[in-house]
C-alpha cells in the first residue's frame, strides 16, 4: 500500500487509474488535473505533471474556473475524458499532453463519465452539482450516451 498527499493544492474531486497500470489522473475543484505515477522511484516521479482545464472567459467576469467532477479512461487507447462544472467534456492524450477533442457543452455540470467496455461510447451524467450555490431555476438531470469516432479518442503519433 502507498499513501500520498495530493499534488494539487485544492480539494480533490475525482480520481481514475490509467489503463496501463502505471499511473492515475486526479481532478480538483480548481479546474486542474494531475497526472501521477504509481512507481515511487524518483526517476519515475519526474514524469508526473499537472495542467489547467475547465476554464472559460466570461464577459464581465474574466476567467472563470470550474471543478473537474469526473475522469474516465478510454479502454482501448488509454486516453481519458474529463467532465467539469462548465458542462464540457474534454478528451485528452496524456502521453502527448494534448487535448484531442472537446464535446459541446451539456445543459449543466458534468457529474460523472464512463466509457463502454469497447471504448466506442461515452456515458455522460449531466446534473447540477451546486458549485454555484442553490439553483436559481429548475434543474434537469440527464444521461447522454455518445458514440465516439476513433479520431476523437485515438492518441496522435508522438512528434520526433
TrEMBL record:
It comes from Chlamydomonas leiostraca. This is Mitotic checkpoint protein. WD repeats lie at residues 68-93. InterPro entries: Quinoprotein_ADH-like_sf (IPR011047), WD40/YVTN_repeat-like_dom_sf (IPR015943), WD40_rpt (IPR001680). Keywords: Repeat, WD repeat. It holds the Pfam family WD40. PANTHER family: MRNA EXPORT FACTOR AND BUB3 (PTHR10971). PROSITE patterns: WD_REPEATS_2. It comes from the Eukaryota.
Amino acid at each position: 500500500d502507498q499513501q500520498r498527499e495530493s499534488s494539487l493544492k485544492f480539494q480533490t474531486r475525482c480520481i481514475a487509474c490509467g489503463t496501463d497500470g502505471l499511473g492515475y489522473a486526479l481532478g480538483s475543484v480548481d479546474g486542474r488535473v494531475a497526472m501521477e505515477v504509481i512507481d515511487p522511484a524518483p526517476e519515475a516521479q519526474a514524469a508526473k505533471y499537472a495542467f489547467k482545464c475547465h476554464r472559460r472567459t466570461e464577459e464581465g467576469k474574466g476567467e472563470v474556473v470550474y471543478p473537474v467532477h469526473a475522469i474516465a479512461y478510454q479502454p482501448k487507447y488509454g486516453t481519458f475524458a474529463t467532465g467539469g462544472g462548465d458542462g464540457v467534456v474534454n478528451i485528452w492524450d496524456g502521453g502527448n499532453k494534448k487535448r484531442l477533442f472537446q464535446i459541446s457543452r451539456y445543459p449543466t455540470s458534468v457529474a460523472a463519465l464512463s466509457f463502454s467496455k469497447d471504448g466506442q461510447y461515452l456515458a455522460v451524467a449531466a446534473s447540477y452539482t451546486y458549485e454555484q450555490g442553490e439553483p436559481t431555476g429548475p434543474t434537469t438531470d440527464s444521461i447522454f450516451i455518445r458514440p465516439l469516432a476513433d479520431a476523437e479518442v485515438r492518441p496522435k503519433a508522438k512528434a520526433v
